[in-house]
Amino acid sequence: xxxxxxxxxxxxxxxxxxxxxxxxxxxxxxxxxxxxxxxxxxxxxxxxxxxxxxxxxxxxxxxxxxxxxxxxxxxxxxxxxxxxxxxxxxxxxxxxxxxxxxxxxxxxxxxxxxxxxxxxxxxxxxxxxxxxxxxxxxxxxxxxxxxxxxxxxxxxxxxxxxxxxxxxxxxxxxxxxxxxxxxxxxxxxxxxxxxxxxxxxxxxxxxxxxxxxxxxxxxxxxxxxxxxx
Length: 229
Hints:
Elements: H1 10-17, H2 30-43, H3 57-70, H4 72-87, E1 96-105, E2 115-117, E3 122-131, E4 137-144, H5 149-163, E5 169-173, H6 179-186, E6 191-195, H7 211-223
Parallel strand pairs: 1-5, 5-6
Antiparallel strand pairs: 1-3, 2-3, 3-4
C-alpha cells in the first residue's frame, strides 16, 4: 500500500482508457481528470481546493458524477480486481465472498441518504462491502446508516452475480440471518456460511473466511482511497 498519492502510470491508464466508450476528441485530458479524481479520493480535500495542476474542479466533478452514474468506476474496479487475481495465480472470477458493513459519520453539509445507526450511535452513512479471499472488492454499495445490514446486503447480491459467474459461497455474520440468507440459498443457489464469535469473548475476534472483509475496511480507513460516498 503506497503511503502517498501517485499519478497513474502509462500502462495503468492504457488499461483504463480501453473501458471508455466515447473516443471523441476533447478539450480536457481524461487522464488528468481521472488522476484528479484519485487525488481527491486520496487526500479527502474539497472539490474547490483541487490542486491547480489538474483541470478546473467543475470539469473534474462533472466527469466524476457522470462516471459514477454510468457505472464506469465499477467497470474499472472489476477490471483491476480481475487482473490482480490472475497475477496472484487465481481464477479471474472468485467463487467465495465475505460480506459486512461499516457505519461512518457523515461529512458536513451531506443530507442525502443519511441516518442514525442506533447500535453504534453513528449519524451518517453505511458502507456495504463484499470481498474475495484476497480482500479485493467484488461489490460495493452505500446507504443511510439506519439501514439494517441484511437490507443493505441485498444490493450487493446482484452486483456479486454480475461480477462473478463462479460464485458458490457467501460468508457473513449473524446480522444477515433470515430473509437475506434465504434469498442467497433459494434464489441465487449459493451456499451461505454464518459465523459468530464465542459469547464469552469480548472485542474483535478474527473469524475464518471473514477476516478479509474486516481488513479491507481497515485498508480503506488507512489509505482513504476509494470512491467517496
